[in-house]
Amino acid sequence: MVNRATTVLALTGPTGIGKTALSKQIAEALPVEIISADSRQVYRWMDIGTAKPDPELRRAVPHHFIDILDPDQEYSAGQFGREARRCALEIFSRGKVPLVVGGSGLYLRAMLQGFFREEIKNPELRQRLHERLAAEGPEALYRELQRVDPELAAKSHPSNTRRVIRGLEVFHTAGRPLSAIQKEQADPAPFSYRKFALTCARKELYTRINRRVEEMFEAGL
Fold first, then answer.
1. pTM of the model
2. What is the DSSP string of 112-135?
């Protein structure tokens, strides 16, 4: 039994699986407000390529964490986790159910399971890492991450330069791997949650993604 007053519902799954369509159906059955857990939809203007919910749905159902930043502003999973938790508690206070929708696994983890409480930041080092990225390329930084934090590297891709740089920033600032710190200083959510993952056959998923890309180009991408 799910207690609507204290349980967050989370809907996840790969790109093109139908999360937005299902969230619309859920909103017709339950008094929900939607928390977008998408690391790209937080940015303004890039509407087509990030597949944001259409304006009609966003008018009908309150959506949070969409169009909150300009593209040149930085935003982390840790920030999202803290702010999304506060948002969920506010939604509960209004007598509604927080419905988290998104495919950014790190954002979901930050909100539901928690990262670490300590803020580890080193803007000067981060700037140097960005300069190295431009000069040496992503593979060089990724190889360094493999040496200093192999567990984080195994969960990352060289092209995910934001995560690679963050891992190196934390290691060289704190002297310890980010993956180890996350385990030791977990910050559990102040609510219960139920997570539902959508899936389908790989061939069908690829067909859906191809169709979505074609629709994006038709829409002006």
1. 0.75
2. HT--BSS----HHHHHHHHHHHHH
